[in-house]
Amino acid sequence: GESVGLHLPTLSVQEGDNSIINCAYSNSASDYFIWYKQESGKGPQFIIDIRSNMDKRQGQRVTVLLNKTVKHLSLQIAATQPGDSAVYFCAENTETSYDKVIFGPGTSLSVIP
Amino acid sequence: KAGVTQTPRYLIKTRGQQVTLSCSPISGHRSVSWYQQTPGQGLQFLFEYFSETQRNKGNFPGRFSGRQFSNSRSEMNVSTLELGDSALYLCASSLGAFEQFFGPGTRLTVL
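^ Those are the sequences you sent over. The predicted structure of the assembly is below.
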């Protein structure tokens, strides 16, 4: 397969705090990035995306930052809530691999009430 | 609007058998992608269909195959099942843009 996920990083945050989930991507040619949230027993759910011509994009309580120089992506969740507990995946794609999204290994976020 | 549906949700098979999984995309979506998710390998792309044609394929053996029908519904088939095929198989649909909508998955257990 193309995505290796031998170890799932975990992040525990207190309810109300901000969360930052990091992701390193591999392909310098990737020009579209997505964050997904996967709750137990469900499929991944789209959170926010960003194209390579941007370095920041904001949604509702979420912000994605892209640093192309070091091939790094981060997801910031403001005022984290118990419902945010899930596994978060970053994914990368290129224009030449239409819909062939490559997922990172995921980070498990646990919110402490 | 109904989401992506996958059937069956759970399946138990034995080694050597074959299995067919079904995916119904969101109405109007013509692109359907399949993924395998395991604890060890994470989410891995299997293949993607658009208008009944396979456009992209991941690095899986030929035992894994798929097809798409004229109504955009898709099936994937795994022949000669191996223990390592035990996984959550996810289907995702899109309009052809990058945003994909995932179904709940089919949990396949191979004994």
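The two ends of chain B are 37 Å apart (CA to CA). The longest strand of chain B covers residues 42-50.

Shout if you want it in another format.
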